[in-house]
Amino acid sequence: MFKTRIIPTKPIMILEGEKKHIIATDLHIGFESSLASNEIFIGKNSSINETIEELSSVIDQEKPDSLILLGDVKSSIKSISKSEWDEVPLFFNKIKQKCDVVLIPGNHDANIQRLVPDNITMISSTGMVEENILLTHGHTMPSENFSHVDKIIMGHVHPVYFQEDSVLNGQRVWVSLKTEKQNIFPNKSGEIEVTIIPSFNRYLYATHKKNIKNQYHQL
């Protein structure tokens, strides 16, 4: 039976059973290109190096069998930017030296197969199941083929806490909730737990309240 835990202060989940996996989502590598178009500049290569170093540190500490990425590894949606051509393969090659890597594509990962090295496991965007847990990006409703699961772990939403008089205002947060299973799988009864992992990219998340129902995800 798989057990889950989170790493305090890190947007990373640990999934432990016969094997041990670390789970992260929404890296948005190459996001600087869109910021630069709005005359917002971040130091060259600073964020990709930061991403590699932070994940490498967790891998060294936890010694997992694999890293599972829940989508949006790259930032542009329909195209591949120049920085993504350089940085996405660099990221995968560096992390693969430490553990296996599994990619579940998200809505920003169009054509990412052109950037993914051969030694990376890339599966369907519908997600993957580990025992009773569905791992998915979260931008589409899960298939009825996964209706037996009791828990969904996803990204996509980039949850942020908003309370102006709180020290947590504007901080990335975890979301965990239970809902009726029929809300997701109409032909099933009972409850299902949904956990939303915060965006790994600390630069790319909401800075003000938004209508999640209309803007973010199917779930």
TrEMBL record:
Residues 23-157 form the Calcineurin-like phosphoesterase domain. SUPFAM superfamilies: Metallo-dependent phosphatases. It comes from the Archaea. InterPro entries: Calcineurin-like_PHP (IPR004843), Metallo-depent_PP-like (IPR029052), Pesterase_MJ0037-like (IPR024173). One of its GO terms (molecular function) is hydrolase activity. This is Ser/Thr phosphatase family protein. It comes from Candidatus Nitrosarchaeum limnium BG20.
